[in-house]
Structure formats: C-alpha cells, structure tokens
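ok trying this again, last paste got cut off
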Amino acid sequence: MPLLHVIILVPFLMALVIALLSKRAPNLHRGWLVFPGSLVLFVYFLTRIPVIKGGDLGYETISWIPSLGIDLVFHLDGLSLLFALLITGMGSLVIIYSIYYLDRRKEALTPFYIYLMLFMGAMLGVVLSDNLMVLYGFWELTSVSSFLLIAFWHRRQKSRYGALKSMLITVFGGLAMFAGFLMLYVMTGTFSIREIWSEVGDISGHALFIPAMLLILLGAFTKSAQFPFHIWLPDAMEAPTPVSAYLHSATMVKAGLYLVARFSPVFAGQYEWFWVVSGVGLITLIYGSIQAMKQTDLKALLAYSTISQLGLIMGLLGMGSAAAFYVGEDSVFYTAATTAAIFHLINHAIFKGSLFMMVGIVDHETGTRDLRKLGGLISIMPVTFTVAMIGSFSMAGLPPFSGFLSKEMFFTAVLNIRNLDILSIPSLFTLFPVLAWIASVFTFAYSMILVFHTFFGKYQPEKLDKKPHEAPFGLLLAPCLLAVLSIFIGFFPNILSKTLIIPAMNAIHPILQTGEPFVVNIHFWHGFTPEIWMTLGVVILGIIVYRIYGRWSLVDKEWGSGYTLNQVYDGVIRLVEKSSRALTGTYMTGSMRHYLMYIFAFLIVAIGGAVWYTDGITLGTTDYAPFSLFEVIVVMVMLVGALAIPFVRSRITAILLTGMVGYMVTLLFVLFRAPDLALTQMIVEVVSVTLFLLCFRHLPKLEKEPLKLRSRLPKLIISIGMGITMTLVALAALGSSPFESISKYYVENSYTLGGGKNIVNVLLVDFRGFDTMFEITVLGLASLAIYSMIKLQLDTDGTIAPLKRAVKDNKPRSSVSDDVLLQAVAKVAFVMILIFSLYLFFAGHNNPGGGFIGALMASAALVLLAITFGIDMVEKVLPIDYRKLIAVGVSVAFLTGIGSFLFDVPFLSQAFGYFQLPLMGKTELTTAMFFDLGVFLAVIGVTMNIIFTIGRDS
C-alpha cells in the first residue's frame, strides 16, 4: 500500500486500538497510547520538507471506484505538507496537554481519544486528497468528529447546543461545497483537482463556473467561521480546552482556508473570487475584533479573536488572487498578500494554541474564566503569565514576536492593493488599509485585556471557586513550547520561508515556478516605511482604547445584544422544529397499518406511474418457459394460503399459513433447480416462523375490529393496486430491458475471475461484495436497534423504566420444552445441523451453500436448542455475546476489503489459487473465504441477537 495511504490510516487504526483496549490497563491514561503515533506522523512529515523543497511531489493512487472516476488519490505538495505539519504537530502537543488536563478517574477518556484520532485522520484526508469526492468524504467526517468532541461533556445543555449548531452550519456548507464539486465534474469530466487545474482555460466561461465557485466558497466560509456563518464558533467553546486548542486554532477552522488556497489556481482569475474572498475576510476581521472587546469570558474572547484572525487570513488569500490578473513582476507584486497569509496562518496556530492552553490552565487552577473575577494572578502563576504575555503580544503584532512580522506583511499587502486597477474607482481600494488598521487597533486592545485583566489588577480570591496556584509541569509543557517557538520564529523567520512558505506559494500560485526562482525574505526592520507608522499608530490608539476600556469599567458592562444572528439561527431552528412536528403529527399516528398504507400508496404512484408513462417499456407476454403440473399445484397452494391469511381468527394459524407460503416458494426453487435459493428460503422460513411465534406470544388474543366500508375500501384499493403494480413491474422486466443481460458475464467469469463454480456465492462475495457488506451492516444495525428498543424503555421524564412484558389476558407460557424425546433428539440434531452448516460454509464457493446460508443453518441449530432447553441454558453452555459477534463479523468483512489495498487493487478485490496441502492434496484457497467468514459471523450474530432478545421471558 502506498505510504500516504498508510499515513492517513494511522489515526484511524489508533482509534481502533483505543476502542479494543478500552478495558485493559485502566490505570494508564489513554493519551499515552495515541501520543507516539501522532508524534511519528509529525516526524515523518518533517522528513518530507527537503524532498518537497526540492520539487519532488508525492502523488500516490489506489483504484477505488474507477467507473465513477473516484480513486483514493493522495498528493503531498508544499501546501498540504504545511497543513499536515500543523495537524500532527499541534495534535501531538494537544495530546500531551490533554493527558494532564483530563483526569482519567473522572472523564470518559476512551471515546475522547477515539473522536480525536478520527478528527486527525479526517483532517489529514482533507489536506492530502486530490479527488474531490474523497476530499468531501473526509470533510464531512471532520464535521461529525468535531461534533462529538464539542459535545464531549454531553450532559451540559450548552455543550449539546454548541455541538449541534457547529454541525448544522458546517454540514450545510459541506453540502453546498459538494454541489460545487459536482458542477466542476460536469464541466471537466474529472474529480481530480490537478486535472481540473489544467482545464481552467476551457471552463472559465462555462455557465456553471461562477455558481460552482460560490458554492465551494460557501463550504469554506462555514468551516472557517466567516461572517455571517461565524456564530457556531463561540458556542463551540463549550468543548474541553484541548479540543478548542486543536480544532479552533490550528485545524478545523483552517480547513476552509486550505480549501480557498487549494482552489485559487482554479478561480483566482475571476473578479468575483477576488471581491467575495477579500470582502468577506475583511468584514469578518473587523467584526470579530469589535466583538472580542465585549467578551468577559476568556474563551469567548479567544473565539472572537479567532474569527477575526481567520478573516485576516481569508482576506489576504483574496487579495493574493489579484496576482492572477497580471503577468511577470506585476503578478509577483500581489503575491505578497498570499505570502503574508501563509506566514500568519502558521503564527496564528502557534500563538492561538498557546493562548487557548493558557486559558485552560487559568480555568483549571482558578475554577473560572470570567474576567470580572480574575486579576492579580501574576505573582501566583508567573509561568502561565509569561505564556499569556508572549502569545498575546504576538497576536497584537508587537516585536520581537513572530506575529509582528506577519502583521507587517499584512499591512504591506493592503497597501499594495491600492495599486490595483481593475476598477474605475481606485479610491475604493483605500478602504482595505483603513479597515485593516482599525481592526488592528481593536486586536491590540483585546490582546492587552487578555493579559492585564487576568494577571494584573486586584486579586479577588473571594470570587474564585478554588485557591489558585501555578499549574503542574505537564500542563505548562505544551504552551511553553509554543511560546518559545513564537520567539524563535520571530528571530529566525526565514527558516520557515525557505522550507514551508515558498513550497506552499508554489502550490497556490503555480505561475511562480515558470520564471525566476521565487524568493521570500522576512526581516524586522525595513526602515521608516508606511507599515511602521501604521504599527505605531495601532500601538498608540490601542493603548488609548485599552485605557478607556479600563477607566470606564467596560468589562463590567452588560452589552445589549439587539437582534443578533444567533437569534436568527435559533428562530429558524424553532420554526423548522415546529413545522416538522406539525407535519409529522398528521401522518405519524402510531398505527403500523397506516404506515404500510403510505408506503404502498407511494410505491403504486411512483413505480406504476413510471411503468405506465415511460416510453420504451413494454410488457413481456411471450416466450414463457413451459410449466409443469407440479408447478401449477405449488402455485395454487401458495395462492390459497396467501388468500386465507386475512380471514383466519388465530395468530398461530396466520403464522402457519405464512410459513406454508414460504415453503411453497422453496418448493418452486427446487423445481426450478435453484438449490442455493431453496436452502436459503427454507432456513429463512424456519427462523421467520420462530421469530413470529416469539413475537406473538407476547401479544393479546387476535380480535377482529369492526370496520366500516369506507375504512376497508382504501385498504382494498391499495392491496389490489400494489398487486397490479408488481405484476406490471415483473412483466416489464421480462419485456423491456435497456441493457444486455449481465447473467452471461457471470456464467462465463465466475470461475475464471472468482475461482468458484457456485455462481450465486461468487456473486455475493466477489462481484457484488459491496452489496453484501452493506447488507450485513444494515442487518447488524437493525438487530442492535431491536435490542435497544426492547431493553431500553424510557418513562416520560426520560429515565429508564422497567421492561413491560405483561399483556392482559395472556397466560404465561413456558419457553422450555419438557418433552424428553425432543430433548434427546435435539442434542443429536444440533450437532448434525451445525456440522452441515460448516459444510455449507466451506463448500459454498463451488457447491450449493455459502456464509449466509451456513449462518442461517447454524442459527436454526441454536434456535432448536433454545426452544428445547431454554435460552438461559443455551447462554450458559455457549456464553457468546452476539452483539459483539456482529461487530466482529462486519469488521472481518470490511478488513478483507481493505486488504486489497496492500496489493494495489480496488477495494474488495478477491484472489484465489491452488496449493498442495498435506493430507488434502491440491486445494483451492481464496480470500473470499475471509469475507464469507465475516458474513457467516455477522448473520449468526444478527439472527440470535434478535431471537434471544425477543424470546426472553424476563
């Protein structure tokens, strides 16, 4: 398997290891299990820096769904390397921090680190994917895993609210992005980002080009919390601080920035791209900085500062796209904005990560994040203060920290944009430096608030929940490393420019690779330039704003919210819930009969209408095979049994008649010489009849309801209509198929390609293995849902209620047979049936049988034991957790499919060969047997979990 694919799999494998070891080594903090893997990934990406710098880009492919153009293509260039280093580097530091922040005795650490590893793997997938569909899949996985992380403290209403809001907004943006990706595919015929780049000149005038651009930007803006989609980020601060430090400083919120940077080669030549990206970025920058001034919660302040800083970077990426309007030196002139964006993206991850960790330490050691209760902590927590000072001063853009350098580059970019001549109103571009400067003043002010209101001023121990003290070494390690890194980069910025910034610039602006070598030199002093005077103005006015803030005690002021975007969001959610509740209440009557009527009526209209109105569909009324007297008798018996069911007055009789119909179908399969289908149908009927009996033994006596004609008539019409519809479908399938039958292909290739003579089994485990895998997954979910519904019943207040099994007028029945003869026969029959089931499993690839029918046969044997000796006795003799067996079976099937990647072939590809084995001679061995084993285990687990759950008396 290609190395990049392995790299992306590592976090998911670590999540699996954490889950499997959930009950092992209870005294070991789960963070220590995942830290080595994250660190190894970070070191690996560090080793790729000289390779990428030298121009050797990694591009690795595994075929997945080639017919749809969807392959697992991963690409490592300068841009993806930069983000991969942020994801794994910050991930390693956050894991170390979380080990000391989260108490293993109080917190559910296993799910926490599972979610964290899922998120890390999803983020790596996003930044390394070259295929749009694969990128989208990982993109939505980041939304789901971040939802789980934000809602980690799920017993808190605010945590649930914040998690739901973040997921709804980001998933909405993701769906819009998905639509944009599909439009790109319609225009180019490919899902490959690299191939789309090469066709930009051909598609830029397409009618779908601008809509695709806007939809993709919608996905980026929602993910990176741009105005007006920023409202999810402050509420996401209810997550544990390690989550905030990871997701909301260096990874998830940067995904939208990555998307904009990655698609700049496609859309940067469009005026709409320039205005939308730079405009939304600048609005978000100034809005976030003003809102940060109003916050009294430290994490809320950091949340709005993050929104502001993300707007800054987004605006720079938009301004950098102006380079596409020019060629030569003029083009390079405007790439300074993109350079500043990349540099500030790195700096922001460093200083914001340290500040989130600092706030977590303050909260951890004082019990509060409220600025109105804090103050005077500098003498108590000097190391934490040092981290806060370095991080805040870097965010404010003060020397000698790295944030000063990227802020100066930001000012350079907004000053350069005044020279843009794409409009007849050049004065409009003067707004760019003005807005940037005003936002920087507020950024300076809230940075000072963060430091001085927390660590200086009056110490108020009476307002604190605990006596504060300096944090332990483990909590301080990660933020201190980030603070040192901020200083180091400030003094040696060109280490980054040569290793990360230039390769990333080459990925965003491919034109830079065609001329003179692109050079980035970052220095502290360039003389008394306009940027320096802007910085001095920011400091002076920022100090004034800060002093006014303190003098007027604005920290204690309750800011009026007015009509906010949050209120709009809440109103929309309430309206949707109210409308859906009203609509659902009209048809969710609690009657299964009504639900079946809805389903059948829809099918009649949809399928019947399609058959009736679609041109080219003809009904097959000729070329029928001759039928025998036996077939006529079987069909007549089947019809009589089916027609009798509605008229019987006993549930037992109805069950037996249903079983009789099923056995007649089995007999038809025998007459049609389909032994696999006959075996499967027979065992399905055995299990189904047993299941019906177990269900009905808990129900009251069957009583006919007196119904009027107007109630019976719709049911009669739907019944007849459904029968006619399915008859038309069957005839249409015989009479008009737009495609050549594929059955000939299966007959000719089941042995040569699948290594099996049993075509049905080869279909299930090879040609249609994907279908089978999803089927056992759905069966497993249905089985677990049945278990949950029966085992977990809630009272109206949401608490668990005792299971109610007693039914009025139903006498208790013993579920254990006292027939001695039956018990004696059952013991022998159990062994014989079980042996036969194993025979069916092993022989199924070349003879009638297979994993599915073998599993049903084994289940029938277990059902026989349960009926004869009782469920409790069977569980004592065979202590198997059938729910875990489902998981094992599905996992075996899924891992068999993944194993194909080791041989660089598509998912679920099977291989076979003939080997000389001791005692057995020449024997065929096939990987399909492992997949079939997964099916075998999963089906046994599903069947027995349902039967044992329903059949238990207590």
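PB: full thing came through this time. The chain is about 65% helix and 5% strand.
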